[in-house]
Amino acid sequence: AWARSRSINNRQRGSFSSFALALMLIHVLQRRPCPLLPSLQDLAITQNLPPLFLQGTDCRFCGDLPQIHLHLAELQKSCGPNEESLGELLLEFFRYFGYVYETGVIAIRDISSFTPRFEPGQSFYVVDNPFEPTKDV
């Protein structure tokens, strides 16, 4: 609703899609000093879950809620549960994409297994599609 009210959620008009904004939010929540979300795809690989290929792309993810909670507790071991308010997290989203992020692929999973097709400095706000590697959403 926030993005729609500011007309910045329409990919056809050159702004972000709702999917891209959701991925950007997940990206920030995964990278907080005390993370709020794990990477479900990376967790599936760590657990050696069988690959799930969709159009030639491994799209496996962990859907086991107790295992996800256990992994998140492991990520938060040194900092405890994240206690940032929604307002603080929203401010961090704006701070991150307004001041911290400079270039590179915004991803919610490990992208080291493939080479992004974007030239550094050529694209700004490249948001990786977790279901179609190297596709900017």
TrEMBL record:
Q: GO terms for molecular function, please?
A: metal ion binding; nucleotidyltransferase activity
| Keyword Magnesium found | yes
Q: Which residues form the PAP-associated domain?
A: 85-123
Any Pfam family hit: PAP_assoc
Q: Which residues form the signal peptide?
A: 1-31
Q: What is this protein called?
A: PAP-associated domain-containing protein
Keyword Secreted listed: no
| Key words, A-Z | Magnesium, Metal-binding, Signal, Transferase
What InterPro entries does this protein map onto? PAP_assoc
Q: Lineage of this protein's species? A: Eukaryota, Sar, Alveolata, Dinophyceae, Suessiales
A biological process term (GO) from this entry: RNA 3'-end processing
- Origin: domain of life: Eukaryota
